[in-house]
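Example (one chain per record):
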Amino acid sequence: MGLARFVLAASALALLAGCQTQPANKPQPVVSVAPPTKGEVWQGVASTADAARLANITGAWAAGLADARKANFVSAIRDEGVLLKTDAALPRPAPTPGSYNCRLVRLGSTGKGKPAFEKFKPFFCYVEVEGDLLTIVKQTGNTRPAGRLWEDDNPQRLVFLGSLALGDEDAPLAYGEDPKRDMAGIFERIAPFKWRLVIPWPQDGAKLQVFELTPVADQPK
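Predicted structure:
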């Protein structure tokens, strides 16, 4: 009888063990990383100094225009029309690749002997596609800016990061290779078939550089 009871007890324990529910596998938390915003992409390329210049572009506009007006260039500013209006940006800032007539207006001065308003003779520049980005290259002159246009969180502007080619150099240095040649600016469409590139606090002694771009009538094929 003892053996029989032992066998029955063992069988009951085995049955109970078989009826127990196995613990379910706990779901593992999924960590998702949001892709960087458009602004974070170009900020990851820009130097700290250039990011600060772009963050204070409103101050550069105000200082440059104030210097020029104080130096009696009020009429000259007015003659430039929409080019020198701070709030002129329009939607769809990306330019069409091709050849452009370009010219430069400088506003303000950070040193003695520098004019508070200066405009230069027109020159040619070129917009081309490089991978997923647009690039701008000044084709003539002793100082020839060139750089890439990056999308921004603000859809009415692109961000320009570039450098200068000097003298008879074949090409500009890569952005960041020589901070003294680096350029950072905002690219905007300001009218039908008219764009501008605004460089705040440039390293040439001005407070603002404004490049005007209009497409060449007869585009090269």
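Caption: The helical segments are 2-19, 38-43, 48-55, 57-70, 74-79.
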